[in-house]
């Protein structure tokens, strides 16, 4: 399924969540750089390609067959896959958990607020993931996982779980979006990469914000995926694209006394409207 970053109407919040996940998946031609390929073993490298294909296929199936996956969220499914890779032992193409450890995890997750509130169980989520090829076999001693369609994914996923700073939130974001530049060293996306999934209209808005802030001699910098602007060494404005195709703006009211907008907040929105009008005329 091909996802359109300019889509703006969705059948449900779940569809919107899955769409936002899908449009943020980084293509391998960007994330699998020569440096990454050089450091990857053959199975891990093949796993990266399969991982990317798998997540696109999973998003497509979730979007087209939402009833089979809800009321769990897309985030819950990603967390399951990451947990399997993080805590299990790779044996061939399988990931093996000790039976007692898996039972303890299942009991804990089923009692968690997210699962109780959603009214789902871990087994129900695993059953949904089986639609696209994930297999879970329970034996007397172990819980064994493998993927029938993309057998090498856990090789790459486990390499990721041993990457630098993986337990920090930005790295978790990389897992969901197949950002393989994170595999061997901490990686932060630049502005163009962060805005890759923004709608065309959103790009115009962001550029209008930047042009106006630059005219006021405000400097832009990026911190954990958030675009921030400083004036006289004080952060004045920031925005990001988490969970929405439009920039989410925030003004730093605590530094208002030196704010170059001088209370005229309408000016920035006027500039945005002018920029949009220029585009519409073309």
Question: Could you characterize the architecture of this molecule?
Answer:
The protein is α+β, with helices and mostly antiparallel strands and 282 residues long. The chain has two domains: 13-187, no CATH class; 192-281, 2-Layer Sandwich (TATA-Binding Protein). 49% of the residues lie in helices and 15% in strands. It has 13 helices and eight strands. The protein has helices spanning 13-23, 28-31, 34-39, 42-64, 74-87, 99-110, 113-118, 122-129, 153-161, 169-176, 191-194, 200-215, 266-281; strands at residues 89-91, 94-98, 134-138, 142-147, 219-223, 226-231, 234-240, 248-251. The chain has a four-stranded antiparallel sheet. Helix 4 (42-64) crosses helix 9. It starts with 12 loop residues before the first helix and ends with a helix.
Please outline what is shown here.
The protein contains 13 helices and eight strands. By secondary structure, the chain is an alpha+beta fold. A four-stranded antiparallel sheet has the order 1-2-4-3. A four-stranded antiparallel sheet has the order 5-6-7-8, covered by helices on one side.
What is the strand arrangement across the widest sheet?
A: 1-2-4-3
- In total, the number of strands is 8
Quote the distance from N terminus to C terminus: 31 Å
Overall shape: globular
What summary fits the major beta sheet? 4 strands, antiparallel
Give structural attributes.
single chain, 4-stranded antiparallel beta sheet, 49% helix, 282 residues, 13 helices, alpha+beta
Fold topology:
Layout lengths: L12 H11 L4 H4 L2 H6 L2 H23 L9 H14 L1 E3 L2 E5 H12 L2 H6 L3 H8 L4 E5 L3 E6 L5 H9 L7 H8 L14 H4 L5 H16 L3 E5 L2 E6 L2 E7 L7 E4 L14 H16 L1
Antiparallel strand pairs: 1-2, 2-4, 3-4, 5-6, 6-7, 7-8
Helix pairs in contact: 1-4, 4-9, 12-13
